[in-house]
Design a protein that fits this description.
29% strand; Glucose Oxidase, domain 1; 11 helices; 15-stranded mixed β-sheet; Aminopeptidase; alpha/beta
Length: 470
């Protein structure tokens, strides 16, 4: 079956209703009440579509709860003039009360000893034309019919230079850490990074751009002391991987998935990805078994925001399934591009640049590229699995767990700057992308049936000479 039954694809309005339903439940961090509500809702949706073998697999997770945080600063020679600075605890850092010490600006060579370190965090602006130099390879492709990439700079939701300060020796003897979100084009201190669930033995907080300026200006005047409190808690909780399946005209499998948790209510991250997976489940459930090219599993894994425990557990528990898997497709982020005005984000009409991480298999790359062009998915880049960030041997997505197991994969995502912030609201969804993205995935699955799937299931990421279908 190489055609698409367009009438069976959920409408744009229906898909947006799903996204809004998920968003409106509240903060979906692992172990939070809203996340449990969504797990039940997913199960109900799978049942309504007619999926089989629906399973909720319990996974242990580290639930991070935040209550409040306080930061006060003053010049050492003017202790009566105290400035209170709003702040937000950095996830999975130490809870502490009334830590007091001098502030010291962190540099690459500064060891912070018995003081509170201060650093500036700037979101990376990536000029798209330099991607080949970053990857040090020509093994990438792009679809840019409007010729935007020569000039376009994509603002990413992280700072490569500063992202590892918490784990560096610079802070090993520090009393605390203040990270100023100075390079943000909107006013926020609620940045949910890191989300690896690694407990770090230091109290640490984020401060917004405007409030960070207050700290900077005071430090220019002389020695500054601070009093820092961070009231958080880490407890063991349970979340669930949710799977449902459909039998097809094959003994091979296609896995289509995403994660169901989020840092906040999070429309783009990842209510929109869940919507894409639901659209595929809804579509293929209406296709007769003899016309489904493969057996299909639909996965909503948990705890992406807590060390990716759900994705890790899934690949470890399903090794036999993965041996028969033709392709694992991970879908995230139907995102709208933005601009900033007066410290606020303004949604634009165009989508955020689309990233497609694809295993190094020529035929698979060709199939993905053809689907992108067929559905006119502008602003698309096809990346190899390795090399982004520089030096990485795996993609920065849940697709990395398939890659490690030599399972061919496609991992679709975008990386808008607001991805880990409460500013990820429903107005950031690029609704016009829903249907062409859904159609592109259907194209890919249909075309894979005409491929040499034995080569796909025998793919070995560790043997580069096997990474091309002959």
């Amino acid at each position: 079956m190489n055609f698409i039954k367009s009438e069976l694809i959920p409408s744009k309005d229906e898909m947006f209703e799903w996204t809004a339903k998920i968003f409106n439940q509240g903060i979906r961090r692992p172990g939070y009440p809203a996340n449990y509500k969504i797990e039940s809702w997913i199960k109900n949706q799978f049942e309504t579509f007619g999926l089989e073998n629906i399973v909720l697999d319990p996974i242990k997770v580290k639930k991070w709860e935040v209550f409040d945080a306080h930061l006060k600063i003053w010049l050492i020679n003017e202790p009566e003039h105290i400035i209170e600075i709003p702040c937000f605890p950095i996830p999975y850092t130490k809870s502490a009360k009334n830590i007091e010490g001098e502030l010291e600006l962190i540099s690459n060579k500064t060891l912070i000893s018995k003081k509170i370190g201060v650093a500036y965090y700037n979101l990376l602006k990536l000029p798209l034309k330099i991607i080949p130099r970053i990857l040090r390879t020509d093994e990438y492709r792009y679809y840019d019919p409007e010729n935007e990439f020569n000039e376009l700079k994509q603002m990413l939701p992280f700072d490569i230079q500063k992202r590892n300060i918490l784990d560096s020796d610079l802070l090993k003897d520090a009393l605390g850490y203040i990270c100023i979100l100075s390079g943000y084009p909107w006013e926020t201190d609620k940045y949910y990074v890191p989300y690896d669930a690694v407990e770090r033995n230091i109290p640490a907080v984020y401060v917004s751009p405007k409030n960070g300026k207050k700290i900077s200006e005071l430090m220019k005047k002389g020695t500054v002391r601070a009093n820092l409190s961070s009231n958080t808690k880490i407890i063991e909780g349970i979340s669930h991987n949710i799977t449902g399946s459909l039998q097809g005209n094959s003994d091979e499998w296609v896995i289509i998935g995403t994660h169901h948790d989020a840092p906040w209510n999070s429309a783009v991250e990842d209510a929109s990805g869940m919507t894409l997976v639901l659209a595929q489940a809804n579509y293929w459930a209406q296709i007769p078994k003899n016309l489904r090219p493969f057996n299909m599993m639909f996965l909503m894994n948990c705890a992406h925001m807590a060390g990716a425990e759900g994705a890790k557990n899934f690949v470890e528990k399903n090794k036999k399934l993965l041996e028969k898997t033709v392709i694992a497709i991970h879908l995230e982020h139907v995102a709208r591009d933005v601009k900033s005005e007066d410290g606020k984000l303004i949604p634009l009409n165009k989508p955020t640049v689309r990233w497609w991480f694809v295993s190094r298999i020529n035929e698979l790359i060709n199939i993905v590229e053809n689907a992108i062009k067929k559905e006119d998915l502008k602003r698309s880049i096809i990346f190899p699995p390795e090399g982004f960030s520089p030096g990485s041997d795996k993609p920065p997505t849940d697709g990395c767990f398939y890659h490690k197991k030599s399972v061919p994969f496609i991992s679709f995502l975008t990386a808008p700057p607001y991805l880990f912030d409460p500013a990820d609201t429903l107005d950031k969804i690029h609704q016009d992308s829903y249907i062409p993205l859904a159609r592109a995935i259907i194209h890919i699955i249909n075309e894979l049936k005409n491929s040499n799937t034995k080569e796909l299931t025998n793919f070995d990421v560790h043997k580069r000479d096997q990474n091309k279908i002959k």
